[in-house]
Design goal:
Chain lengths: ~475, ~475, ~475
């Protein structure tokens, strides 16, 4: 029976005792860090080394050092803390490694460095062993000092379930939570993971930086340089706040509309094709996949815009102008009339901005992993789609009210260029118009049918007795 | 041994090979989406269809199509992507389905549409098979394109553990994390899940909207209409900011006290009954269960209040009034004395508000799932109860200071109605008074004993050797 | 074969039926609450009691009450809801308890109350049984009403894997998610968990409070008392806002630098020792472990600082001063010149503050558990280290610009004491300087090599074929 239990229970039960032994190949930094952690977790640790005697001095106290062959025989689980280039030393050990679980911890220095994943390469070298990829996504810090805030999760993959369970058991004892990601074919993905630095953020960040730079220089010319050339007035100090407070909202609004444009385009594409079963072009797919990042960056800029706006009255320049105006009013004995329209416009403008920002923040919060995981997809799509478009609407209206009637006065168009807020209104207006089209009853009905699997000129092919999905885009 | 392994290992090991076959009944949208995902995850997919030949054309490339009977025999796991109304076609297949795992993916269009859950109905039709409910909480998006931000979690339930493990194994390979929710009796719950749209938020939202509307009209009459009728002054523009900035704090404060009132009431009820073992009335239970939502909505209104307050100095109206005052001061050669009391009052009023809002935000952050999960219940109750009541105290004091001595001057009571901030002070004051009563030593002692299981006139029944819980409400 | 299945499947399959029976020892509050939950989850519940008849009246309806011996025999799983002091009543039941799973739910009133953990003590009393520690971290609320926002996670530990699986199965059916923490030796840790109240926050909070108090009194003397003594002017009202708005930024900046100082010190220590394999002194370790808390508190103070700054223009005092100035300007017929330098300085000062705060918030968000878990350690360290130091840089520059040339004018040094912002600049400047040293190519190279396991005068010991870790501190 035991042998059955051996095969069938999560492996930690096999050696369910303090004296469980684990083997580590490689006495480098990773090997030593891991060995230390294993000892602390109550394992017996045996190091496999080419020169047991020379290296022993360095190793954590309490660990045993043997030659590779002897070490391999001493344990069922062997951590391979050796660089891929040197895996070949394992080939002669084929016999000792037969049936053993080899954990491949290795990472590469850059992506696609080798034709196949290190773990797959290892498996091909030692076919008799059961290779499991894992732990490689952990930081040095986590492996030496246990789970940190950054890494509690350990990802593993491999062909054999028992082998994976054995590794999961060790991970749990080391204080990590392990997730089985499937077959060894996933190894490549796991090996690329630690190399990535915000891959999904690349494109959105580039867009944000590009837009910021473009509008910064555009406004620099229109406002500061224009003033200098035409009235030879130096108002360069405005760069720090006034200009920043123009760039932020502009970029924010454009990014927000960029975040809702792909969904609209996709709908029109489906409408045009009359089916949902043809893949979207790659550029559209990529675009759709970075909507979240686009939205969060937009929120960031909106946040800065709010701060920049709120500090206006604290600015020396503003205080100075205000005083100047009052003083001149008195000296020249002028009086001003309270203008109801300005009051209405100004207040609505501010109010719309506040409500828009409120919704903005709500969208941001619901895109936190722990929050969105707690939502049913109907709830999630309600917030991200319905409230999202409402946010876009509010922010666009906010900007239109800001422009107000200045759209008409020619003085607005210095050097025949439109001000920034006009430029940034184009995209959101388009998105909102298209969305408006999509929610008109007739169009919406077709879209919904298409999303439920209906295909133009293919109705009879989709028997009524089959289950369909509600739409969500 | 294989047969043992078959029964005993997480099922993915059974077909531990690329060629594992899964069967899908129903060639509708859901069936096709799922089939595509399964193929991508390396499964062999066999569709069961009434007209294998007609439907095949539509199905994802690489999938096989057979008649239902043949398809059923080809795989151990069968996804039922067919509407409940048509389940009966499975009855004649009873033999082929014996011992198979049937995954019920179906959802209903509205709650309690049928006497029993679809999955239970399916089980009753095919008693020989092992029915597992699952995947139905996923969105179209997730099922077609894999886990999205919104859905990574898959919930399943069923009677047989092996069957559930088989389904979990598939879920993991598709990139989801599966959670066993228990027996098939849970199916109804799982089937209702996708239909829900913020069920716990309904009541709090209604309260919030109701309060907002009520106070909006109340203040509309007291401020704008009153001014128009008595002094025929049109100050309607104030609706956008001034009025909004009165409604928000009022609603926020009332909601916050509504969030702490039920706890206080519950304590008094226990005190009155002298036991904790009698259930609370339903209305109180429901109320207690939506405290979190009440609090978060209150935070939302507080957030808007802060923004509305901070933009005050940017407003045209405010700027105009300020200038006017200064100008008139000079023209009429008046001078004003610096009033120390006003300075003290104004600054403390602002400072209390800021501190209150700071705590408010802290409460909001700790109610994020990932944060509250990391807290021990003692820590959680410390923040939500102790700090929560402190927040209420600060915000109430903030409002009292705002009112200051205007409580006395009759001019405050236009048309004999009290201003909004007075009305909104009633509830928080009551809550704080009751709470004050509860924390007086003598009362607190009794409450604690009751919460530890003591019952008035029943001491001898609760032997000292039994474990009691610390209190938390 | 069944017996195999019995041993090898997650134990819930053993009693896979509604009538599964679980036993609860102890009819106290905890026992009854738990019993109720178990009944609701569809278990058959048998209470073990010293006086079955007397206590039955109190117990949840549907539960059975027997003597301890009889109860023990009726179920495989027994919850021990009895205080440790009374465990000895189990000794005579040794035979009935042989092979049973005993779940120890007990908590202590203070840490290290007993030489060994309650669960270990229990195991020593009943060696024949399989003791599992668990559920003790749950709140009364959660145990009675099911998973609350605060507690969804159940931690368990024990020697036997089957026993643990049995308990996990129950936990899942009760709606909790259970995490195996390893051997019974972890029990002590689990028993201490519910007693803890923000242990990692203690030190940072003390520092924050200490600093706040110190600077409050320092500034109280320098500003308010100084003004009173030298010019007998009462400006005590400034305490509420002006003073608070000086204390907050000062404490925030110091705390932020305290959060990055230990990392820098650690690097220099490693540089000095020429190895990473000697442990850091305890004080440094403790310091490093509370960096996150230090940072979050610093963010809190920065948040208050922002609010205090933004309300400045709403203050009565500020309005009064502004008017006074304007009035006097006119009466004395003075005119002011617009000072470009002041404009530049003021705006840059504000702009730096805003950007700094923006990054501050970003750091805060990424330290949310659910967010940081989604990051690879490379991403996490990029944000927390790179962006973190950038934040420190921005905030320090912000403060320097605030001070500007006042560093030179003697009038700044009332009573020969430097103003607060000068004092708070010392630490961040030091940290930034040291960090600057560390990132100079030559030093950085050495550090990196050390972090990769290289040791001064020990190169040959670290064979090239061993795997090294990228650095992260």
């Amino acid at each position: 029976l035991n042998s059955v239990v051996f095969l069938t229970l999560p492996v930690d039960s096999i050696y369910d005792s303090r004296s469980e032994r684990v083997c580590v190949f490689g006495t480098g930094d990773l090997g030593r860090s891991l060995g230390l952690r294993l000892l602390q977790a109550g394992y017996g640790v045996v190091f496999g080394s080419r020169r047991p005697h020379s290296s022993s001095s360095l190793l954590p106290h309490g660990a045993q050092v043997l030659g590779h062959a002897a070490a391999a025989q001493s344990a069922h689980l062997i951590f391979i803390a050796v660089q891929r280039e040197h895996y070949d030393f394992l080939v002669p050990l084929a016999n000792q490694l037969k049936g053993k679980v080899l954990v491949d911890l290795s990472n590469n220095l850059k992506k696609n460095q080798y034709p196949e994943a290190n773990a797959e390469y290892l498996q091909s070298l030692v076919p008799g062993a059961e290779v499991v990829k894992g732990f490689n996504t952990l930081s040095a810090w986590s492996l030496q000092n246990g789970p940190s805030d950054a890494n509690r999760q350990v990802y593993i993959c491999g062909e054999s379930v028992e082998a994976k369970q054995a590794v999961i058991a060790v991970a749990i004892k080391l204080g990590f939570s392990a997730l089985d990601r499937g077959f060894l074919s996933v190894a490549r993905e796991l090996e690329d993971f630690p190399l990535q630095l915000f891959p999904q953020w690349r494109l959105p960040l580039r867009i944000a930086i590009g837009l910021s730079a473009a509008f910064f220089f555009y406004l620099l010319i229109r406002d500061i340089i224009y003033a200098y050339v035409t009235q030879s007035k130096d108002i360069s100090f405005r760069i720090m706040v006034s200009l920043a407070n123009k760039v932020c909202p502009i970029v924010s609004l454009i990014m927000l509309s960029l975040c809702y444009l792909p969904g609209v385009l996709a709908s029109f594409l489906q409408l045009y094709r009359g089916t949902k079963y043809r893949r979207f072009p790659d550029w559209l797919d990529r675009w759709m996949l970075c909507r979240k990042q686009l939205g969060l960056l937009a929120l960031g800029f909106a946040f800065l815009h709010v701060l920049y706006t709120l500090i206006i009255p604290i600015r020396y320049y503003v205080w100075f102008k205000a005083t100047e105006r009052t003083v001149s009013m008195i000296r020249e004995n002028r009086t001003t009339q309270f203008d109801m329209t300005t009051a209405w416009r100004g207040d609505s403008y501010l109010s719309l901005g506040i409500l828009g920002f409120g919704l903005y923040v709500l969208l941001g919060i619901t895109s936190l992993p722990s929050v969105s995981n707690a939502l049913s997809w109907r709830e999630f799509s309600f917030i991200q789609s319905k409230l999202g478009h409402l946010t876009l609407l509010l922010c666009t209206a906010h900007t239109y009210l800001y422009g107000w009637n200045r759209f008409l006065s020619s003085s607005t168009y210095k050097w025949y260029t439109p001000p920034g807020y006009m430029l940034c209104l184009v995209l959101p207006s388009v998105v909102l118009l298209l969305k408006l089209l999509l929610i008109t009853p007739c169009v919406d009905r077709t879209i919904t049918r298409i999303r439920q699997g209906w295909e133009r000129g293919a109705d009879q092919r989709n028997p009524k007795d089959n289950l369909s999905l509600r739409h969500e885009l």
